[in-house]
């Protein structure tokens, strides 16, 4: 499905570029045309980040060639499938696409000023290359006086691209801000509902404490064989209080589930948004506990999902485990990557922490298993993180989880989930 959508994007962009290429000016009596097609190409490359520049350049140049043939036949009555002048224009788009691929796409650079410089250079070099070839074919000497005109054209077209991208970027930032405000308002509403439910759970903590006191008093009376006449009453009161606590907890849990299922499961979230939240939250956590850790995130395809809360829980637990596994006195690295593998989305969390013994790998998903002990306080982790991860991955997301670890080099945990289970 995603490949079909991506193919549609390629052809849609090619059609748009071909249409814009019909807006042009001719120069130098060499049938040399400067069109708006390259502006449409550059803007599309920036906007559609998953589109590869060189294949897009090839497809666009073919569509432009066909559009030139069609326009020439329509307006001039010349139906020539072979036109050397139009074919030379393909060279310009190929050269431009190669520049874009090497200096912008490969470097993943989104700085608009940098893009302006590179596009100006690409436009200037590619136009001159086309002019040299045209001059050779038409037996016309390349005039150095053309350089200033070609450079001016390159600057103007790149400036138009810069302006369009700038306004697109500002519009996108505005949309993101509005979306964040919407999410924040919704989060406040959800939190107010959850606060109501947690009130009952907090209230029950006091009841549980009282219940523990009564239970211990009953134990003392039984062990000392005293006040036998009130044993029955004590036992009945304890049973009655347990029933009340169970009932109130059931109501609170039902309320929390209703809020989460109704409010949280219906919205989509992009993988890039999710990983940004994870990165910002967990890098702060690493700094808070005094650990020198870098977190690297790499996404192959930025899909949308409605199961982002499950995915967030899984990745957060894995990265938190990695943070805890890295000693304070070492420089830590955690890599979170996403890959496409046939019909599955594969997530890999890799760290350079203390690793896991081979004999213990099969135990790490058991509730209560933990190797994380604070030797200053004696506190030990509850060991529920990986158990939760396994439950969510296998039961909720119908996925698989695999672990590779080495005491010297760290741990790598990979999770494979079928795309139909995760993607919208």
**Approximate helicity band:** 55-70%
Major sheet attributes: 5 strands, mixed
Task: Compute the separation of the termini in Å.
Answer: 10 Å
Mean pLDDT: 84
Summarize the helix and strand pattern as letters. HEEHHHHHHEHEEHEEHEEH
Overall, the morphology is elongated
The number of helical elements comes to 11
- Report low-confidence residues grouped into runs of 5 or more: 373-383
Structural class: alpha+beta
Identify the CATH class of the domain at 269-422.
Alpha Beta
Short description:
The chain is α+β, with helices and mostly antiparallel strands and about 425 residues long. It has helices spanning about 1-20, 35-45, 55-75, 85-105, 110-135, 145-225, 230-265, 270-290, 310-325, 385-395, 420; strands at about 25, 30-35, 270, 295-300, 305, 330-340, 345-350, 400-405, 410-420.
């Amino acid at each position: 499905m995603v490949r079909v959508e991506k193919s549609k994007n390629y052809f849609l962009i090619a059609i748009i570029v071909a249409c814009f290429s019909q807006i042009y000016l001719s120069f130098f009596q060499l049938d040399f045309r400067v069109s708006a097609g390259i502006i449409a190409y550059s803007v599309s490359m920036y906007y559609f980040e998953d589109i590869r520049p060189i294949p897009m350049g090839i497809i666009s140049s073919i569509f432009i060639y066909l559009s030139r043939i069609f326009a020439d036949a329509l307006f001039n009555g010349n139906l020539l499938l072979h036109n050397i002048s139009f074919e030379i224009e393909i060279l310009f788009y190929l050269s431009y696409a190669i520049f874009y691929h090497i200096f912008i796409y490969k470097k993943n650079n989104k700085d608009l000023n940098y893009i302006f410089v590179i596009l100006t250079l690409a436009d200037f070099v590619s136009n001159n290359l086309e002019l040299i070839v045209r001059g050779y074919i038409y037996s016309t000497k390349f005039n150095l006086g053309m350089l200033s005109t070609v450079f001016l054209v390159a600057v103007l077209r790149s400036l138009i691209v810069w302006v369009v991208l700038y306004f697109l970027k500002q519009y996108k930032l505005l949309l993101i801000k509005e979306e964040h405000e919407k999410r924040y308002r919704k989060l406040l509403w959800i939190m107010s509902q959850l606060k109501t439910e947690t009130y009952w759970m907090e209230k029950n903590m006091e009841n549980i404490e009282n219940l523990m006191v009564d239970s211990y008093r009953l134990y003392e009376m039984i062990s000392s064989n005293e006040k036998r006449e009130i044993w029955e009453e004590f036992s009945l009161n304890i049973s009655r209080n347990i029933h009340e606590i169970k009932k109130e907890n059931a109501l609170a849990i039902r309320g929390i589930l209703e809020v989460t299922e109704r409010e949280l499961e219906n919205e989509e979230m992009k993988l890039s948004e999710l990983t940004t939240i994870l990165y910002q939250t967990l890098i702060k956590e690493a700094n808070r506990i005094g650990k020198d850790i870098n977190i690297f995130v790499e996404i192959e395809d930025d899909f949308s999902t409605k199961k982002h809360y499950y995915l967030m829980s899984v990745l957060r637990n894995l990265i938190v485990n990695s943070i805890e596994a890295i000693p304070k006195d070492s420089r830590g690295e955690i890599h979170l990557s996403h890959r496409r593998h046939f019909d599955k989305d594969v997530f890999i969390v890799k760290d350079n922490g203390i690793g896991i013994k081979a004999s213990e790998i099969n135990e790490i998903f058991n509730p209560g298993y933990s190797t994380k002990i604070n030797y200053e306080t004696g506190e030990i982790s509850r060991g529920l993180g990986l158990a939760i991860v396994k439950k969510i991955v296998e039961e909720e997301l119908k996925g698989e989880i695999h672990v590779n670890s080495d005491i010297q080099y760290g741990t790598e945990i990979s999770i494979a989930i079928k795309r139909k289970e995760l993607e919208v």
